[in-house]
Structure to design on (294 residues):
């Protein structure tokens, strides 16, 4: 459990001091806004694909649904520079499910497959697109096949974000009162179907449905922490603002804790967190007159 006094101190740090703070546990990069972050995400992934293609190597990547700011720059770079994605192998991070663990309707805002087809795949010119055989969607009836393909060769790069509780993919903080998990269990968690925790449901309801939590998918399927951190490089990004501000501070300064799964990122040898100013700032740091009693 994160101590409140520690959390208060981390949140008090002005965002301008985060990048070079002496107590950082994982490298951090600050960017101005969504536009700058989207360009960086797109450029770095394109460069990774091109570099490996020049060496006649495939690129095996874990790719998230979001943040949306990078899809247009990425697809425009691919098309303009004629970058073939024929040797890109994509493992999608996660997918939301209904209460029976079944796929959502195609037009549901949390149907990640529909979003990725619309924003990530279809805008790419036909002759440059990722082959359908190289797209591994999260599917509850294909878990064994996905894992076999995943561990068949190294993963070159993991792209992703984090949630309000610091979840990577949908590796949410486990809130179940009767089955706590240890750090080792979290660290070795693998592809699975699960119920979403309550704070994830409330956060998504506020973000998308005007706090109508009844519309939020109650279940999900996700790559585990073990898979997410299997990439040779791990790059996490967020431009979401207030929803991610505290989890970022914990990620940067806290020892590993199951309360915030993102803290395990500090155990990876080549990890980098990138956030916009709006996500890196924190209301506590902007109100020195507050006295919370710690």
């Amino acid at each position: 459990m994160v101590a409140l006094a520690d959390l208060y101190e981390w949140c008090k740090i002005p965002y301008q001091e985060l990048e070079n703070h002496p107590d950082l546990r994982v490298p951090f990069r600050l960017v101005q806004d969504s536009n700058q972050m989207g360009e960086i995400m797109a450029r770095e992934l394109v460069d990774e694909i091109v570099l490996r293609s020049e060496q006649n190597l495939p690129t095996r990547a874990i790719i998230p649904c979001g943040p949306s700011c990078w899809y247009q720059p990425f697809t425009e770079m691919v098309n303009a520079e004629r970058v073939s994605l024929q040797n890109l192998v994509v493992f999608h991070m996660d997918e939301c499910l209904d209460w029976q663990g079944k796929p959502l309707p195609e037009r549901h805002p949390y149907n990640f497959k529909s979003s990725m087809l619309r924003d990530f795949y279809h805008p790419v010119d036909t002759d440059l697109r990722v082959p359908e055989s190289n797209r591994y969607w999260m599917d509850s009836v294909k878990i064994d096949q996905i894992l076999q393909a995943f561990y068949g060769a190294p993963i070159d790069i993991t792209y992703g974000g984090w949630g309000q509780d610091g979840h990577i993919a949908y590796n949410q903080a486990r809130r179940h009162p009767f089955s706590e998990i240890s750090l080792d269990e979290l660290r070795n968690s693998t592809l699975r179907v699960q119920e979403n925790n309550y704070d994830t449901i409330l956060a998504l309801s506020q973000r998308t449905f005007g706090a109508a939590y009844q519309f939020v998918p109650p279940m999900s399927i996700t790559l585990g922490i073990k898979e997410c951190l299997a990439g040779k490089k791990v790059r996490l990004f967020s431009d979401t603002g207030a929803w991610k501000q505290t989890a970022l501070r914990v990620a940067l300064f806290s020892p590993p804790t199951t309360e915030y799964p993102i803290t395990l990122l500090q155990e990876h040898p080549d990890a980098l967190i990138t956030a916009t100013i709006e996500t890196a700032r924190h209301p506590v740091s902007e109100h020195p007159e507050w006295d919370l009693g710690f």
Remarks:
- The mean pLDDT is 97.
